[in-house]
Each structure stands twice: as C-alpha cells, then as structure tokens.
Amino acid sequence: MSGPDEIVHQTTRLRILSALNALPRREMLEFVRLKAITGATDGNLGAHLTTLEKAGYVKIVKDFAGKKPRTRAGVTGAGRRAFQDHVAYLREILEGDGASA
Amino acid sequence: MSVTRDDAASALRDIDKAERQSLTLFQYRAGSPYLLLWGPLWIAAGAVGAISPENTGIGWAAADAVGLAGTAYLVVTQSRRFGEDGGRTGTVRFLGIAAILAAFIALTLAVFAPVSGVQIQTFIVLLVAAAYALVGCWFGLRFAVVGAALAGLAVGAFYHAPAHAAYIVPVLGGGALILAGLWMRWAR
C-alpha cells in the first residue's frame, strides 16, 4: 500500500480536487463556486489553491468575464493522478484492517 | 501521517459530496444556454400569434427552426468541448432524440385528432416539462423545479384562461425558461 499524499489529504484541498476531478477534461471551476463547495473563506481557499498550484496539481487562470475579474481553477494531469492514487489509498484502508502510517 | 479507517471513511464521504455538488453545478451551467435560447423564442412566437393570429403557424415554424438550429449548435459545441470522441456521440444522440420526439408528437397528435392549437401548444409544453422533471431526477433539483413550473403554467392557463392561453402560455412559459436559465447560470 502506498502512503497518503499529504498535499491531497488535507480536507479543503481534498474537496477542491474532488470538485475539479469530477468535471470533464479542460473544464474549470470559478473561485466563487469552489468557495461554496468547500465552505472555505476567500483567504483560506486562496492559500490552499496556491499550495495545489505549487505542487503542480491545479492551474489557476485569472481573466475577465465581461468587465468582471474572474479566477478559475482546473485540475492538471498530475493532479488527477495524485487524487486518484489518494482515493485508491483511502479505499485500501477501508478494505484493509485499520490505520496506516 | 496516520490515516485511520474512520479518517478514510470521512474523507471518502467528503469526496463524494464535493463531486456531486461540482457535477450538479456543471450540469446547471451546461443546461442554462438551452433555456436562454428557447425562452425568448417562445415569447417571440407567442407574440406573433397574438398580434397576427393568421401567422401563428409561421411564427412557430420560424421559432422552431431557429431553436432547433441553436440547440444543434449547442449540442455539437458542448459535445466537442466535453466529449471524449470529438462530439460524434453527442451529435448522434441529439439527432436520435430529435427524431424520436418529432415522431412521438406527430403520431400522438394524429391519434387524438382533431385537436386545437391551444391543445397542441399545451401538450408540447407538458412534454418539455416532463423532460425537465425527469432530467431533474438525475442532474439536480432546479431542472425538476423548471419542469413543475412549466406544467403548472400550461395546465393553469389551459383550464382557467382557455381564451387567452394562446398568448399567456408563451409569455409565462418563455419568461419562466429565461428566469430558470439565469437561475442555473448563477447557481453556486
């Protein structure tokens, strides 16, 4: 059994990656919608997105929708793989016999 | 870092919830352009019928032609954007669904003939309403609410204001589609 991905396992980052991984490829999610899904504050969500971006798991795009500034996030190929590996790891724990270090 | 069985179960529940929320929002965003396309067309066709009753058929034919062309465009572009096979499956499905619905409507109206223009209009609205309600069973409550609102408007106008249903239904129905389209587009 491979170990947990500490970047992915944190609750808010796990929710972010779950929401982004559920979308079709190349589709992105607006910051305000991610905020609603994760239940995080602006600052908290921004910090976790930066962590995921530095790890190469998400890409952030800042642009304008009409005249309104817009921030969107999408999962990268590395992010999808890391998320799927982590989900597999969590399932192994449930199917196995207890805690894993 | 130690992850217990309870931690793992809790994390998987979190994942499931976030995925469902994200997919629902995605379906709303993908569905809203169809409502924003058909809402104004429905109102425009109803207005043609109210202003010039002898041109009702031409108004609806023009609205349907524009609506079907716009729907085909949306289906193809969304299938290309989100589909895995360059949009072929989405396009074939759209053509299949359009053909089945056209045949179903034509054959049903033939069986129940003679039917009035208001009956035809109400029947088509109820069919669309049922489709939205069924879609809502899978993809989110807002689709079901749109279906229920459309059905209520159509049946209410048919029974309580039959003389005015020909233009009440398009105005209220088209307006409901536009509002629902905006409601879905802004969903969070």
Write a structural description.
The complex is a heterodimer of chains A (101) and B (188). With 101 residues, chain A is an alpha+beta fold. Chain A has one domain (6-93): Arc Repressor Mutant, subunit A, CATH 1.10.10.10. Chain A has five helices and three strands; from the N terminus they run ααβααββα. Chain A has helices at residues 6-9, 11-21, 31-38, 42-54, 77-95; strands at residues 29-30, 58-65, 68-75. In chain A, strands 1-3-2 form a three-stranded antiparallel β-sheet. The radius of gyration of chain A is 15 Å and the shape is elongated. Chain A starts with 5 loop residues before the first helix and ends in a 6-residue tail after the last helix. In chain A, 34% of the residues are buried. Chain B has 188 residues and is an all-alpha fold. Chain B is 87% helix and 0% strand. Chain B has six helices and no strands. Chain B has helices spanning 5-51, 56-82, 88-112, 117-139, 141-160, 165-185. In chain B, α1 runs antiparallel to α2. The longest helix of chain B has 47 residues, at 5-51. The radius of gyration of chain B is 20 Å and the shape is elongated. The chains are: A alpha+beta (101), B mainly alpha (188). The interface between A and B is medium-sized, with 34 and 25 residues.
How is this fold's topology laid out?
The complex is a heterodimer of chains A (101) and B (188).
Chain A: H1 6-9, H2 11-21, E1 29-30, H3 31-38, H4 42-54, E2 58-65, E3 68-75, H5 77-95
Chain B: H1 5-51, H2 56-82, H3 88-112, H4 117-139, H5 141-160, H6 165-185
